Amino acid sequence: MSVSSIDVPRYDGALPSVQEAAKMIDHSLLRPDLTLDEVRAGLTTAREYRTASVCVRPSDVGLAITELAGSEVAVGTVVGFPHGSSSTATKVFETGELVALGAQEIDMVIDIGRLRSGDIAFVQDEIAAVVRAARGRAVKVIFENCYLTDRQKTAGYEAAEKAGAAYVKTSTGFADGGATAADIALMRRTVSAAVKVKAAGGVRTLDALLALHELGATRFGATATATILDDLASRLANS
Questions:
Q1: Active-site hit among 140, 153, 196, 198
Q2: How confident is the model over 103-159, as pLDDT tens digits?
């Protein structure tokens, strides 16, 4: 499933530098059908644009570590992806294995059904277990907001902060909806400044990235990295 691109007006505020914008992007390489050559091409894009990180499939972590050696691009990956329904023990094992391989950031999917059932203690305990298994690496907690009410969202975000998460994240990009302005604003006002906000799903344009950044998102999962940053370079050159 492809989440619809976020449709926003042309951004008319002050523009960041290309490098500042690149450091907001986790270049996403998570499609299940990607070939190894396509993954390598994506890693090259991340290196050339000097993004904050790549977010690769678990099986590609070793490849990403090798290909990005000597660069400033962090290697991130996913746990319990994309449904979040694997057991806590499985998520903990997966996190430990990926950290041992060299992953520097972990994007984990919560147990969505447990949150929708009101089992906040389970959700918090599971996030905390993954945080411990990550051994100091940033854990970004994916909520799949399109399935949740605002009350469920806020309860989940608060649980993530209590559990030690570094980020709350909107979505996987593989469900019925992605990032929205309303959700970014809700996330930012729910968690403290100690927790950052990541937008993912539908962030395919510079205008979408900048509009959501203005609302409080500081990291973005994106596949359209080159398009976004080339557009920014063009606007800066013609400003």
A1: 198
A2: 999 999 999 999 999 999 999 999 999 999 999 999 999 999 999 999 999 999 999
Q: Which of 107, 111, 140, 196 is catalytic?
A: 107
- The 8 Å CB, 24+ separation contacts for 147-156 are 147/112, 147/116, 147/175, 147/176, 148/112, 148/115, 148/116, 150/186, 152/115, 152/116, 153/183, 153/186, 153/187, 153/190, 154/186, 154/190, 155/115, 155/120, 156/110, 156/115, 156/120, 156/123
User: Is 107 among the residues known to form the active site?
Assistant: yes
Annotate 150-179 with b (16+ C-beta within 10 A) or e (fewer): eebbbbbbbbbbebbbbbbbbbbbbbebbb
Q: How many residues does the chain have?
A: 239
Say which amino acid occupies 117.
S
- Kindly report, residue by residue over 162-192, the tens digit of the pLDDT: 999 999 999 999 999 999 999 999 999 999 9
User: How many secondary structure helices (H) and strands (E) does the chain include?
Assistant: 10, 8
Instruction: Give the type of residue at 159.
Output: A
Kindly report the number of other CB atoms within 10 A of residue 90's CB atom.
12
What's the whole-number mean pLDDT along residues 197-216?
A: 98
Instruction: Note if 37 is an active site residue.
Output: no
Judged against a pLDDT cut of 80, whether residue 20 lies above it is answered with: yes
Residue 157 CA to chain centroid, in angstroms? 15
Contacts of 196 (CB under 8 A, 6+ apart): 166, 167, 168, 218, 219
Active-site residue (options: 140, 169, 183, 196): 169
Q: Give the residue-averaged pLDDT of 91-106.
A: 98
